[in-house]
């Protein structure tokens, strides 16, 4: 195992009606003049926004609104939020939504804390942040895990670059997590979220050298739990207990609990997908599902023991055979699972058909974003990235 530093300072309020305490917790963390960031008008129509703003008024907290955040959140909206925050002298960011909204709030918080610098420089890794305004969230979709993580992902819509920046400065002060707020999500969003949750753990699971049995057991238990409850929600979307299991798994999957003792994780699938959603604006979870089988079949021989362990302990492969046969059976069962919850397993099923030129562009951009290489199960370089994209483009 490797040495590790586990840091997860976010206070979690989990359960029914917890959103009613939003104002109290904003006050607890010294928010006085806050910017509420959210996406669609769904939270207006269902009364959630009014419920939260009422709780803020009860604590004499001033608030301003920034809406219109979209999936694969855009840099232009971040700049808009920074401009608004400067004018209104914002001192706290509250995100109401999922990962896209929370990531936007984090990026705005970086920009307001260092207004003399361009926040995009962080995402291009030209510098490190020195400060960040406090951020918190009321979660309305279980997926990205941004509510407890150090990460944020933003798309520069001008050049189709989707980039991530990780820094403990942006870890949310608190996260309000009421599974009831996810009961009426469309099935596609629910299952994309479940896919993203599983991938956050799988990225940490498929490593070469140095793992802890306890961490593996936590990771495998989380993966089995999400797999079971994602399938349950596909047929019974109003199941509160299943929603709760998936929501809590989302936070645990990306606060690095499932990576303690490993080498930092693989995360090649995520980086490959960022280029796909940056170019084609597909939903992140669906993009991950479309790429992972090709990535797995490309790298499994280099990390065979982990793929066998995954096949047996997560996917329930019981067939006898060689390690290679068992590993491939586990990958096949993962594809079956994706299909069972309506997720794609290749680009055609995702609804895109990249040209060879586009594949080369995505691979080059991915290589640039990763400093030339990425991965732990197998270290990938430009040519490897091209091959994985081509495999995902051919598997029908």
From TrEMBL:
Gene3D superfamilies named among the record's database cross-references: 3.40.50.1970, Dehydroquinate synthase-like - alpha domain (1.20.1090.10)
GO cellular component terms, A-Z: cytosol
Entry GO MF terms: alcohol dehydrogenase (NADP+) activity; butanol dehydrogenase (NAD+) activity; metal ion binding; methylglyoxal reductase (NADPH) (acetol producing) activity
Cited InterPro entries: ADH_Fe/GldA, ADH_Fe_C, BDH-like
Keyword Oxidoreductase set for record: yes
Pfam families documented for this protein: ADH_Fe_C (PF25137), Fe-ADH (PF00465)
Coiled-coil spans in chain: none
Presence of the UniProt keyword Ribosomal protein in the record: no
Occurrences of domain Fe-containing alcohol dehydrogenase-like C-terminal (ranges): 194-392
Alcohol dehydrogenase iron-type/glycerol dehydrogenase GldA domain: residues covered: 9-179
Keywords per UniProt: Oxidoreductase
Record protein name field: Iron-containing alcohol dehydrogenase
Organism: Limosilactobacillus albertensis
């Amino acid at each position: 195992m490797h040495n590790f530093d586990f840091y997860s300072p976010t206070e979690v309020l989990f359960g029914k009606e917890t959103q009613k305490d939003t104002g109290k917790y904003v006050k607890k963390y010294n928010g006085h003049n806050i910017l509420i960031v959210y996406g669609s008008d769904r939270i207006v129509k269902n009364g959630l926004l009014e419920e939260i703003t009422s709780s803020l008024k009860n604590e004499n907290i001033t608030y301003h609104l920034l809406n219109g955040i979209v999936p694969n959140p855009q840099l232009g909206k971040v700049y808009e939020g920074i401009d608004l925050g400067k004018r209104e002298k914002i001192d706290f960011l509250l995100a109401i939504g999922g990962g896209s909204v929370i990531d936007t709030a984090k990026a705005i918080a970086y920009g307001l804390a260092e207004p003399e610098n361009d926040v995009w420089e962080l995402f291009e890794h030209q510098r490190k942040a020195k400060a960040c305004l406090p951020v918190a969230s009321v979660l309305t979709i279980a997926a990205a895990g941004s509510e407890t993580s150090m990460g944020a992902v933003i798309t520069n819509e001008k050049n189709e670059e989707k980039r991530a920046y990780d820094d403990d400065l942006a870890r949310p002060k608190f996260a309000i997590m009421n599974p009831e707020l996810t009961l009426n999500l469309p099935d596609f969003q629910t299952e994309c979220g479940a896919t993203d949750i599983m991938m956050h753990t799988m990225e940490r699971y498929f490593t070469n050298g140095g793992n802890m049995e306890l961490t593996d057991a936590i990771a495998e238990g989380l993966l089995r739990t999400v797999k079971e409850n994602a399938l349950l929600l596909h047929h019974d979307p109003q199941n509160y207990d299943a929603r709760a299991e998936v929501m809590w798994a989302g936070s645990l999957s990306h606060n690095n609990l499932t990576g303690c003792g490993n080498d930092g994780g693989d995360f090649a699938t995520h980086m490959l997908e960022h280029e796909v959603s940056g170019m084609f604006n597909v939903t992140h979870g669906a993009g991950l599902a479309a790429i992972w089988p090709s990535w797995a079949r490309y790298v499994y021989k280099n990390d065979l023991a982990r793929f066998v362990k995954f096949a047996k302990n997560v996917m329930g492969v019981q067939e006898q055979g060689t390690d290679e046969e068992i590993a491939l059976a586990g990958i096949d069962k993962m594809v079956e699972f994706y299909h069972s919850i309506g997720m794609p397993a290749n680009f055609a099923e995702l609804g895109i058909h990249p040209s060879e030129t586009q594949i080369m562009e995505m691979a080059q951009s991915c290589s640039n974003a990763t400093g030339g290489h990425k991965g732990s199960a197998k270290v990938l370089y430009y040519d490897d990235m091209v091959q994985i994209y081509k495999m995902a483009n051919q598997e029908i």
